[in-house]
Specification:
Two copies of one chain form a homodimer.
Chain A lengths: L13 H11 L4 E2 H8 L3 H13 L3 E8 L2 E8 L1 H14 L5
Antiparallel strand pairs in A: 1-3, 2-3
Chain B binds a DNA duplex (30 and 30 nucleotides) through α2, α3 and β3.
DNA sequence: ATTTTAGGTTTATAATATAAACTACTTTAT
DNA sequence: ATAAAGTAGTTTATATTATAAACCTAAAAT
């Protein structure tokens, strides 16, 4: 691609981008909260969180709130950088 | 998706978005020109142009320049609208 | 005349997205 | 106490998408 910058395929996905966008604005967010805000199904969200986590774009920690399992996600430095690069690259498409 | 607007899947593709972005700025463009500007392979470009054309987002006309076949593409009104909606929706992800 | 190049299209394969089905537990109702 | 329903996810199967490789047709070049 000469005129257009490549878009990180990991971020160029509606749901993963929504997750990252959301995490950009907060310290951390729980699975259920992300699910609501994005409108994703649990299965889809679970898969996409795994991918973001495997890439090191987010951190995931599992704990319990009372007796219920809670999955918390937060964006990493690497994730912030990737998001910023993505947004910048995207601009070459929006002229 | 509650907080995030849906992104037209037809436009949320690196190559198709590049093609549309390019066509937004010109009256029409030839296959070979688009191929160069986007860096796409001919096969991939052919497929994606078909999809944009089938959706009515672009018009495609085939003719000859001397003895060589030329495929010309231009964005349609429907395409312009879809592109604008896409860009707008995208903004909900870039906050 | 046969090789190479131009301008594509078609087809096969790899990657992605998504929902449906499942697991493991907890809470509520009977 | 037990069955039914709900919560919080994960795994698996399937449909869709993206992409490159192989192919086609005609024109130039050697």
């Amino acid at each position: 691609m000469s005129d257009f910058k490549d878009l990180d395929p990991l971020l160029h996905s509606q749901l993963r981008l929504a997750v990252m966008s959301l995490l950009m604005g907060v310290q951390s967010a729980e699975f259920v909260y992300i699910k609501e805000k994005t409108g994703a199904t649990a299965g889809n969200l679970s898969v996409q969180i795994d991918k973001l986590s495997s890439a090191g774009y987010i951190g995931v920690s599992k704990s319990f709130k009372g007796k219920k399992p809670v999955t918390s996600c937060s964006i990493t430095k690497k994730g912030i950088e990737a998001f910023e690069i993505y947004v910048n690259s995207l601009k070459s498409y929006l002229k």
